[in-house]
Amino acid sequence: MKDSSLLKVSLIVSLVGLVSLFSILSVTNISSSTIENLENYKDDTTIKISGVVNSIEENEGFSKITIIQPSYLNIVLFENISDKLNEGEKISATGKVQRFKGKTEIVARQITRLSLENNT
Question: Domains along the chain?
Fold first, then answer.
């Protein structure tokens, strides 16, 4: 195959791949929620929730973050995060709804720092 033909095939395959990725991303939708609405979700539903960090508790192998929105919610993250996050910071957490000992919580796969509470 000539170099120019190979280049054309490579460009076409790359463009098809990019269009496919954009299509998948536009269909995938993670809903944002409030703490009060969490009871409406089934376990293992992926959601996104924001709030202000009230406390951080480190345990062996995981962290428990309590946010306020104005009610309280525990977010579990299976890594230690105390050196990356502080009380008073506004965060967004994406994860699955779970019930543990009768309480609804989020098992997070991603936490994003949005801002400090003082600066919002």
Answer: 31-119 (2.40.50.140)
